Every structure is written in C-alpha cells, then in structure tokens.
Amino acid sequence: MARAPGKSGQNGPMTHAYPSLTVEVASTVDRVAEELRRALFDGELAAGTPLREVALAESLGVSRPTVREALGVLVADGLAVREPHRGVSVVTPDLAAISDLSRARLVLESAGVRRWAEAGDEARDAVRSTLAAYTRAVTEQRSYAVLNELHLRFHLSLVALAGSERLVAAAETVYAELRLALAQVDRVRRDAHAQPESHLRILTPLEAGDLEAAEAQLCTHLADAEAAIRGALSEVAPKLGP
Amino acid sequence: MARAPGKSGQNGPMTHAYPSLTVEVASTVDRVAEELRRALFDGELAAGTPLREVALAESLGVSRPTVREALGVLVADGLAVREPHRGVSVVTPDLAAISDLSRARLVLESAGVRRWAEAGDEARDAVRSTLAAYTRAVTEQRSYAVLNELHLRFHLSLVALAGSERLVAAAETVYAELRLALAQVDRVRRDAHAQPESHLRILTPLEAGDLEAAEAQLCTHLADAEAAIRGALSEVAPKLGP
DNA sequence: GATCGTCAGATTGTCAGACAATGAGCCGAA
DNA sequence: TTCGGCTCATTGTCTGACAATCTGACGATC
User: pLDDT tens digits, residue range B210-233?
Assistant: First the structure.
C-alpha cells in the first residue's frame, strides 16, 4: 500500500486543532491481525488449519516478520495455538473448551448483573441501548454478522456493569474464542434470531430491581447457549468425550 | 492452557516416554520476556521507563526482532504500554488502575469461593496446600520474593475453584499488573508478613461450608489489600485522584 | 516576546535475505 | 513389519537496511 514513493499530499497546515479527531491509521500488524480475525470469524479457515508464515506473507503482501507478529496476537487472543517449530494453527474447540468458556462468561456476566445497582448510569444506559440496537437489528432482518456483533456487544455491556476494564478485556477474549467456535459449527446460525426476548427477560427484572431473577434468567440463557454449541459441536466432531 | 491434546505419538527415538520430563528449552523470546518480567517485578525499572529496543537487544545479547517480540508479550500482559512510533514503556499505575484491578480480582476470587462445594477435590486440595506452603514459608522467614510468589499462588488457587482455565489466565494477568504496582511502591513489603491468619480466615469457613462468611472475609481481605496499595501509591505519587 | 516552520538526531515500523534447528514424510534395510 | 537415515518444508533467529515518525532545538515571522 505505502509503496508509492511519495504520499506527497502535505496536509499539515491545519489552522485549528480540533479535539478528538483521530485519523485511524492502524499499523500493518494490526491490519493483518484484523484480516485474519475476520477470516476466522467468517469460517474461511477450518479448525486446525495451519497458518503458514510465508504463504500468508506473500498472500497479504507484507513481510514475514509482520505476519509473525500478527500471528502472535491471534495466539494471545486464544484464537490460534503455537507449537514450537510447528507453527501456528487455528484452534480446534472441543467440549472441554466450550464448557470452560461458558463457565467463564457466566462468572463475568453474573458479576456485572449483580452490580447493577452500584454501576454507573452510563453503564446501565449502555445495557439498554445495546439491547435496543440488537432488537431493532433483528426486526430489520439485518445480516448474521451484524446481529452477531450486536448480540456480543450486549453481553459485553453486562460485563461492563462490574466496573472493571480488565474484566471487560478478559470477556472480549472469551467471546472471541466462543465466536470462533460458533463460526466453525455454522449450522447454529439459524438460531440467531430467536434471541431478543430471551435477553429482555434479563433486562426486565434488572430494571425492576430483582437481581436474583435477572441472574437466574442469565444463568438459563447461558446454559441454553452452551447446550446449543455443544450439540452442534458434537454433531460436527462426534469423536470427543470424557 | 490447553496444549496439544494427547495425540503425540511415540515416534521419537526415545525408547521410553517418561511422564512429565520436560526439557526446559524455552524459546529466546520467552527467556527475554521472563528476564524483563523479573526486572519489572524486582523494581529495577521505574514506572514510565522507556524500554528501548536496540539498547535491550545489545544488553541481552539478542537481536532486535527478538526483543521486539518479547516487548509485545509484556504489552499483552498489561505490564507495559506501546504508543505508536514512541515505543514501549513501563506502565505507571494510578489509583484508577488499582481500583480496576481490585474489582476484577474480587469478582474472580469470589466466583471461585462461591463454587467451593462444586469444585473438584484436587482444586480444593490445591487451596489447602498453597495456603500451607505459604504459612510454612512465613514461619521459616523466607525471602520476600518467595513469600510474594506463594501468596499469589494461593489467590490463584481460589480462582481455579471456578473451574475455568480462562478465568485463571485472566487472573494471572491481573496479578501480574498488581505485582508490578506493588514493586513500584516497594515500601509495602514490610506488610507482607502479616498475611497468613488473614487467609486462614477465608479457608476456615470454607471447610465448614459457610460460603457467605468466606466470601465476606475475602471481601474485607481484598479491600484491605487495595487500601494498602492505594495508600502507598498516593504517598509515592500524590498528584493523582479526583 | 510568543508562535510557528524547519531541520537534525533518535527511535520505531517494516522490509529483505539468510542460516541453523527442528519436525514430517519417504524410502530402503534388517 | 519395523527401524533407521535421508530429504524437504517450516520455523526461530540473526543481520542489515530504509522509510516514517517523534522529539527537541534553532531561527524566522508577527
């Protein structure tokens, strides 16, 4: 991209310094990592697929160190695994991983729900607005990718109620891994429309101040989600088990 | 973390496959990252210190890409921050970060405590043994580094009660950041000996099946820890805070 | 005197090429 | 068949290089 010898456009002499105007120039590594993430979430790479450095480098038009660093990001996010001298490959989610992830998200989200009363107004508003956006997108028959994105955003807003950025960051990696598992068993996609009322059953008791009911609803909702993924996964790969 | 599931065949030239005999031949990047971590935890690098790539490379006898990758690990762990074209520098913990971290660890550890009954026997035994090891180390007047390590290991074993490796991994990064904050205000070290009975007040009700009491004890313990760090930090950097 | 443009130095971001170490698969021999 | 060695592919690491950008100081302009 930046191969042309001169981006001669000198756009420097701005007369005013406007606040909070950031030009989103992500680094090459970030762009590569984002592209790989997209490919993973879109199911273009099956579980266990090795991610060869040289092939990716010439395919994406960047150098091998750049690809290597981007792969490190994916590994840190839990979307890929690196084995010494064998390279990086897409994770293969098994039932144990789904169980682990589901337990983690239950802990994170219920912690947020339990702090509904103590959370800030903006955090509570975020929960309301993300659910509204998700519901609206469902009625508007938006694409699966959009629905998925808004759905996850709602659950993230629940975690944010706990008031810790670190917990939200942890939840983001959990959701990334779950999202990848979903992409690899993409038959679950048709279920993605039945969700809004299930989420509303969480928010309604919250607004009413009934934290226990909200937590119970969340618990069943997450248990249902786990069961759906487990079912789809065991159909796809019926070889696992204790 | 879940490494390769046991599909590693016996095709090696070794005649016997001894269990749990690992040759600790970590990669160069891991060694560099570990060395940097040690330096950070030992307080050899003050908050905000820039970590220059070339200087570290020739100081450690490795190449710049290797250092660069190791710095990426530190950034991913939250121990350093990277600013575009300005490099990586040691994080400077402020009161907001301490608050954030404390809330996160409260969520993670109380989630573990709450699942004491449902946790596996080995997880409960791990809590007992780590506390015993810590107590023994205190009576034996071990070094501060050893005490710190065992202390953290006990709290990690609490998180492990929740039964999710991802949560334990998240807790590890939280503790890493907290540990760094502690190292930077190292006047708190003298308090490190007064802890065993405080932890025993958590375990005792657990063994008795009184989860609420255990959680309450944990809450006060963590609140005390946060107050101690906050106090030390505001002495060191008395410029922050609304 | 203050603000701004410009320049040199330092540092990072990215690239290209290279080499050794390691792992995987193939083929021949006991 | 099973074992041992060979070849190839891939990664881990190094060296060197260049462009983009930040920092700080110097001088010009109002």
Answer: 999 999 999 999 999 999 889 888
A101 and A129 assigned to the same domain: yes
Give the per-residue pLDDT at B23.
52
For the CA of A73 and the C1' of D12, the distance in angstroms is: 17
Q: At A61, which CATH number? A: 1.10.10.10
Whether residue A66 is found in the same domain as residue A152: no
Contact (CB<8Å) B4/A165? no
Residues B114 and B171 in one domain: yes
Q: Do B75 and B177 fall into the same domain?
A: no
Find tokens 């405080």 and name the residue. Answer: B198
Tell whether B175 and B225 lie within a shared domain. Answer: yes
| Residue A12 confidence (pLDDT) above 60 | no
- Same domain membership, residue B70 and residue B129: no
Q: Among the residues of chain B, which ranges form H helices?
A: 28-41, 53-60, 64-76, 95-114, 121-139, 144-160, 165-184, 196-208, 211-236
What is the reported pLDDT for B88? Answer: 95
Are A72 and A175 in a shared domain?
no
User: How does pLDDT run across A152-200, given as a tens digit for each residue?
Assistant: 999 999 999 999 999 999 999 999 999 999 888 765 555 555 678 899 9
Residues 155-174 of B with CB under 8 A from A: 162-167, 170, 173-174
Name the nt closest to B52 by C-alpha to C1'.
Answer: C11
Please, which residues 177-196 of chain A have a Cβ atom closer than 8 Å to chain B? 177
A101-120 pLDDT tens trace: 999 999 999 999 999 999 99
Of A78, A101, A166, the CB nearest to B104: A166
Mean pLDDT of B1-6: 33
pLDDT at B71 over 80: yes
**Residue A56 Cβ under 7 A from any strand C atom:** no
Tell whether B65 is within 8 A of chain A (Cβ): yes
CA-CA distances (angstroms) from residue A206 to A58, A128, A136, A198?
Answer: 52, 11, 20, 14
CB B232 within 8 A of CB B188: yes
Domain that holds residue A53: 21-90
Number of compact structural domains in chain A: 2
Quick one: B128 and B216 in the same domain? yes
Backbone Cα Rg of chain A: 21
Instruction: Report yes or no on A159 lying in a domain.
Output: yes
Give, in order, the Cα–Cα distances in Å from B183 to each of A230, B39, B187.
44, 10, 9
Sequence-distant (≥ 6) Cβ neighbours of residue A199 within 8 angstroms: A131, A134, A154, A221
Q: Which CATH number fits the domain that encloses residue B107?
A: 1.20.120.530
In a domain, B62, yes or no: yes
